[in-house]
Design brief:
This protein is an alpha+beta fold. The protein is 16% helix and 33% strand. The strands form three sheets. Strands 1, 3, 4, 11 and 12 form a five-stranded antiparallel β-sheet that branches. The longest helix is centred in the first third of the chain and has 28 residues. Bound molecules: FE2/S2 (inorganic) cluster. The site of FE2/S2 (inorganic) cluster (FES) has 12 residues, from loops.
Amino acid sequence: MGANPNVSRRTFLTWYMAGLMTATLVAGLAPILVYIWPPAPAGEKLGDVTVTPDAPLSTLQNGDAISFKAPQNSGFIELDGGGANSPGGRTYGGFAVMSGGLIRFFAITCSHLGCSVAFNASAKRFECPCHGSRFNLQGQVIHGPALFPLSHLHVTESGNDLKVYGFTDQPA
Ligand code: FES
């Protein structure tokens, strides 16, 4: 039983180098992928959380917002953000906002230090009760101290309900 005579030294080295490069690439990418899509902590299940908004989205007018909350033992995952918000961050409420005929979904969490923002319907903006940050209908900062916009949420409509990408605590 000797070495396979059909495998040349060149072929062996080619496969060896390819394997080494693949392993290096995977080792380098894994932490980045985990940062972008962090695994659920133990006892949590990631997936769509079904919520009923405070009013049907069909009633949403341009310049208006409708809020929704996560059910008990559930929450939503922020898609982006900065400051107190981050991709993969947790939040427990959100808003559907219509502007320019487009509906956007934002997390309720202020990017400054994490208080819950409220919608001011007459001023058509979000206001944070803690330190006075304000955000426009596109979620952008119009008054500090917040430096970063509101985080987006991933939402799909399901009849009168919404399916918001989030997490549910699993009983131990
Ligand atoms: S937490 Fe919102 S302004 Fe400070």
